């Protein structure tokens, strides 16, 4: 077996395959199976700010005697504490059952909610925190900098309360992604995950209604993240980059490592094919390294990223017809 180990967020991983936050990682039993299948690290299912608020509202709606602010505050605090306590128990159970890094995940859209939970998450034993943040900016009068400032505020507030590493899981909707990642590194992020896979709407034309689009990624989705993993890992040296979305095979993982990823997050392929898909991907990476006579990932990681190839402009090409204009 080749040395597949890597470091991510300062954590030692036996291999670069991280199971991303999802229903796959919401119980200790599932986490045990993923670790046995070969996961290098596991990101727990997110603790959602929207989920907490929804649970509070449901309990308030069902409860009597909440006309007083004190009663509302009591019920809201009780519900949130229960939700958070369940999450803290999952962290502790996971740490007892497996010997791979456990990364907590917080899905939020405001800075205030999470500062109270961050230290509890650290005390429960989480090895790192992944901040999963996305806001759809619909204000026509706002500036891009205001949108970016929200990310920095959330990061800065959580950073004040924990000493464990923090990664930001980002979408691609930034006017200057490289500048944003650079600012995140300055504000205390040790890593970024490129990219988040968000809820996307679709239209049901028979029932004239909005519905959720297909949730799983496809192998073709890897294209966008390859571009930006390559550029960001080359430009920003003091932050780890994990690749996410569209990684369904060992070959796809190798591509991301070649352009500079420290680790790869996988999810959809495990939903489709079970934990065995993870075992297969680890084996494919090992066999490729044998074939290429690489003994360690660091011997080839970043070999084909933006800063190491002779024509880095290939990662900047944006126009399909420009690329093919010379073909008859």
Automatic annotation (TrEMBL):
Enzyme class: oxidoreductase
Taxonomic source organism: Breznakibacter xylanolyticus
Signal peptide: none
Positions in coiled-coil regions: none
One BP annotation, GO: 'de novo' UMP biosynthetic process
GO cellular component: cytoplasm
EC number: 1.3.1.1
Record keywords: Flavoprotein, FMN, Oxidoreductase, Pyrimidine biosynthesis
Subunit details: Heterotetramer of 2 PreA and 2 PreT subunits.
Pathway listed: Pyrimidine metabolism; UMP biosynthesis via de novo pathway
Protein name in UniProt: dihydrouracil dehydrogenase (NAD(+))
Pfam families documented for this protein: DHO_dh
Known catalytic reactions: 5,6-dihydrothymine + NAD(+) = thymine + NADH + H(+); 5,6-dihydrouracil + NAD(+) = uracil + NADH + H(+)
């Amino acid at each position: 077996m080749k040395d597949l180990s890597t470091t991510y967020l300062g954590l030692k991983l036996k291999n670069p395959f991280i199971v991303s936050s999802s229903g796959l990682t919401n119980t200790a039993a599932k986490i045990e199976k993923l670790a046995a299948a070969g996961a290098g690290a596991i990101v727990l299912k997110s603790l959602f700010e929207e989920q907490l608020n929804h649970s509070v509202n449901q309990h308030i709606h069902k409860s009597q005697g909440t006309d007083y602010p004190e009663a509302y505050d009591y019920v809201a605090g009780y519900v949130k504490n229960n939700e958070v306590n369940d999450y803290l128990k999952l962290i502790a159970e996971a740490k007892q059952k497996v010997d791979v890094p456990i990364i907590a995940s917080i899905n939020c859209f405001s800075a205030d909610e999470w500062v109270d939970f961050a230290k509890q998450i650290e005390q429960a034993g989480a090895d790192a925190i992944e901040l999963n943040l996305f806001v759809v900016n619909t204000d026509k009068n706002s500036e891009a900098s205001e949108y970016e400032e929200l990310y920095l505020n959330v990061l800065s507030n959580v950073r004040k309360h924990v000493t464990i590493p923090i990664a930001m899981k980002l979408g691609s909707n930034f006017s200057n992604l490289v500048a944003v990642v650079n600012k995140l590194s300055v504000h205390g992020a040790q890593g970024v995950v490129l990219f988040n896979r968000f809820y996307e709407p679709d239209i049901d034309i028979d029932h004239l209604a909005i519905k959720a689009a297909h949730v799983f990624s496809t192998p073709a989705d890897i294209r966008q993240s390859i571009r930006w993993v390559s550029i960001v890992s080359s430009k920003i040296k003091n932050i780890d980059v994990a690749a996410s979305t569209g990684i369904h095979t060992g070959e796809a993982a190798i591509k991301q490592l070649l352009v500079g990823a420290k680790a790869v997050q996988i999810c959809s392929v495990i939903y489709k094919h079970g934990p065995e898909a993870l075992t297969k991907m680890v084996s494919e990476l090992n066999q490729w390294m044998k074939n290429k006579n690489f003994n360690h990932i660091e011997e080839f990681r970043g070999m084909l990223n933006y800063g190491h190839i002779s024509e880095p402009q290939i990662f900047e090409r944006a126009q399909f017809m420009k690329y093919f204009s010379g073909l008859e």
